From TrEMBL:
Keywords: Iron, Metal-binding. Coiled coil: none annotated. It comes from the Bacteria. Pfam families: GBBH-like_N. Residues 14-96 form the Gamma-butyrobetaine hydroxylase-like N-terminal domain. One of its GO terms (molecular function) is metal ion binding. The keyword DNA damage does not apply. This is DUF971 domain-containing protein.
Length: 98
């Protein structure tokens, strides 16, 4: 199985458009991206016993405004939101599933 490659991305209105090396395209709403941020602040992280308690995350209007993004190696995108949040690393696998 070959690795997923991102060939292009663009912000179109309130969606992130992604083009993949296999010809598939995805359009993901910014609201969905932010609500599914994979970072530990948003999703929680396991304690010493492996239990994960998901934190309560409060969003504002600025939470859903994407100000920039950058590719992380050949496997992910890091999104930078207008409210200052930027710790989520969205793997290409995760983005394809969304």
């Amino acid at each position: 199985m070959s690795a997923i490659t991102l060939t292009n991305h663009a912000l179109i209105g309130n969606e992130l458009a992604l083009s993949w090396g296999d010809g598939q395209e995805n359009f993901i709403s910014l609201k969905k991206l932010r609500e599914h941020c994979p970072c530990a602040v948003c999703q929680g992280e396991p304690d010493a016993l492996g239990r994960v308690v998901k934190p309560t995350v409060h969003h504002t209007e600025r939470s859903f405004k994407l100000i920039r993004l950058q590719q992380v190696g050949g496997y992910a995108l890091q999104l930078f939101w207008a409210d200052g949040h930027n710790s989520g690393i969205y793997t290409f696998d995760l983005l394809r599933q969304m």
